[in-house]
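dude i think i finally got it to work??
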Amino acid sequence: MMGLWPTATGFWTFLGFLFLDLMAAESLVILIASIVPNFIVSLALVAFANGLWMVVNGFLVPETILNVFWKSWVTKINYQNWTFGAMMYNEFHDQTFNCAANSCSFPSADGETIEGKQILQYYGYDQGDLGAYAGYIIAIVAVYRLLAWLALWWRR
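look at this
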């Protein structure tokens, strides 16, 4: 309905990464709630963390222009960054877009079409290893869950 890549593979890839993203977000909530049992404080910390993840995940500010401090550690532990990269690759890797005269935001070789791979190169998501992206998100979920378990065990 939204005009995304109209294939079954595209749909299931989108749905799978959406599920992994939500699982990682839930794991972050569990971790913070395990460390800070006060509802209001943990809610504020989760909102802050998700706001930080949104700013540096590549949508608002492309990862290619982030400075070294943010690119070195925040983007690596940010599950939204990996999800966004996977969704970008899923959407653009095998598409060609038609443009009317001068309506493309990206330079076009023939002036009428633009390859999705050009968009991926601009944003820095042209590697396209969806298995690695999923692995990073699953690792983040496992670390968050382990840290939450350790926090609960320590507070016991």
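The first strand starts at residue 96 and ends at 98.
im so relieved honestly
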